[in-house]
Design brief:
With 239 residues, the chain is of the alpha+beta class. The longest helix is centred in the last third of the chain and has 17 residues.
């Protein structure tokens, strides 16, 4: 059983955990997820005029991206879902085919008085994913795993474009950044079993090997914005 198949098995029973654990015995020892220390954006959003802002980010499997931003101070919600395609095809089985135009994404809602869009993007490019991988991320491949920023307005587009240009000019990555910038035409929350997945299933081998290291890197590289207790989607849930 491959890692990608294991990833797609919701952990609903001891039998599934046992199966995943046995498969994991043949995997290499756990290594830290790749992280890159990046400078803060030179260009950032203007002074906030509202208490809430939202940006949609895609960077591979939404489990890991969601987990990272749930541990960021100033983020009030991080929801896994789909963006880039039609509402009628925003369903996991269809999106997984790679033919819907959707990308697995996370809608990050934050308080711009506490954390800026620039800081959100610095975390996104540094620890949430590898922006140089085209239509793939780690063990997952396909356009549904592409790197993309679905901006809500011209200001978000301006900040994102400037930061990508800044990083490319500095050549801090071995390859060019392939992150797409696209107007957000609709975000659709994923099925309930995908929400808070990394928090609810930390022993899932996919989470353990691919996603928990991202959270560890957030804690190491961004201690000023890291929070131990994640903000969860489930109403009233506690980690």
């Amino acid at each position: 059983m491959s890692k990608s198949i294991l990833k797609r098995l919701p952990v609903v029973s001891g039998a599934v955990l046992l199966l995943a654990g046995l498969a994991a015995l043949s995997w290499p020892a756990r290594t830290a997820e790749r992280a890159t220390t990046l400078p803060a954006p030179v260009v950032d959003s203007a002074a906030p005029t509202a208490a809430t802002a939202t940006v949609v980010l895609a960077g591979g499997c939404f489990w890991g991206v969601q987990a990272v931003f749930q541990h960021v101070k100033g983020v009030t919600q991080a929801v896994s879902g789909y963006a880039g395609g039609a509402k009628s095809t925003a369903e996991y089985g269809m999106v997984s085919s790679g033919s819907t135009g959707h990308a697995e994404s996370v809608q990050v809602t934050f308080d711009p008085r506490q954390i800026s869009l620039g800081k959100i993007l610095q975390i996104y490019f540094s620890v949430a994913h590898d922006p140089t991988q085209l239509n793939r991320q780690g063990p997952d491949s396909g356009t549904q795993y592409r790197s993309a920023i679905f901006f809500a307005n011209a200001d978000q587009q301006r900040v994102a474009q400037a930061y990508i240009a800044q990083l490319d000019k500095a050549r801090l990555f071995k390859s060019p950044i392939v992150t797409q910038l696209t107007q957000n035409s609709g975000f659709y929350a994923a099925e309930a079993y995908h929400q808070d997945y990394a928090t609810r299933h930390p022993t899932n081998p996919y989470i353990y090997y691919n996603d928990l290291p991202k959270v560890e890197n957030l804690k190491t590289l961004f201690p000023d914005v890291y929070r131990e207790q994640p903000v969860l989607v489930a109403a009233g849930a506690k980690s």
